[in-house]
């Protein structure tokens, strides 16, 4: 596993037992610094949700969720919360295929697709967008 963030500290906080206090390392979570515009309300909601789930501020709508430290458990939590937020169901694979807040906001916008893609379409899109790099070069 790769850490989602590195922090440099001059001195470690210790527990009464003399061990490193891991809770003190996390530090206080600050609210995301997102400017909410008329066209960016869904983006800001998604960024606020990501900040809550990841436990740190996220303000870049074009950042890849997985590069920020997100994992499949985080995706499952976000998927449920987004379905509650927009009031409609969509496949979990959409979050994997659209890993930026901007892309998810466009997908979930009222003018976005109402009907989710089928499983075959999802697999084809995922294969085209990057998973094909894992294939053996002899099998192409």
Helical residues, percent:
40-55%
- Identify low-pLDDT runs: 29-39
Gross geometry: elongated
Overall CATH architecture of one domain: Orthogonal Bundle
CATH topology of one domain: Non-ribosomal Peptide Synthetase Peptidyl Carrier Protein, Chain A
Output mean pLDDT: 77
Task: Provide the gyration radius in Å.
Answer: 18 Å
Order of helices and strands: HHHHHH
CATH superfamily of one domain: ACP-like
Structural class: mainly alpha
Number of helices: 6
Describe this structure in words.
There is one protein chain. The protein has 140 residues and is mainly alpha-helical. The protein has a domain of 95 residues: Non-ribosomal Peptide Synthetase Peptidyl Carrier Protein, Chain A (Orthogonal Bundle). It is 41% helix and 0% strand. The radius of gyration is 18 Å and the shape is elongated. It starts with 21 loop residues before the first helix and ends in a 12-residue tail after the last helix. 13% of the residues are buried. About 8% of the residues have low confidence.
Short description:
The protein is mainly α.
What descriptors fit this protein?
single chain; 140 residues; mainly alpha; Non-ribosomal Peptide Synthetase Peptidyl Carrier Protein, Chain A; 6 helices; elongated
Write the layout of secondary structure elements.
Layout: H1 22-26, H2 41-54, H3 72-86, H4 93-97, H5 101-108, H6 119-128
Helix pairs in contact: 2-3, 2-5
């Amino acid at each position: 596993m790769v850490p989602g963030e590195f922090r440099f500290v001059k001195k470690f906080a210790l527990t009464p037992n003399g061990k490193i206090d891991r809770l003190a390392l996390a530090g206080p979570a600050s609210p995301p610094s997102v400017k909410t515009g008329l066209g960016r309300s869904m983006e800001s909601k998604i960024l606020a949700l990501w900040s809550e789930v990841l436990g740190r501020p996220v303000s870049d709508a074009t950042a890849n969720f997985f590069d920020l430290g997100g994992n499949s458990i985080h995706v499952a939590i976000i998927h449920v919360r987004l379905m509650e937020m927009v009031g409609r169901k969509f496949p979990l694979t959409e979050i994997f295929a659209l890993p930026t807040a901007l892309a998810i906001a466009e997908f979930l916008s009222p003018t976005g697709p109402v009907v989710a893609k089928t499983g075959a379409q999802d697999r084809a899109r995922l294969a085209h967008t990057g998973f094909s790099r894992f294939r053996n070069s002899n099998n192409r």
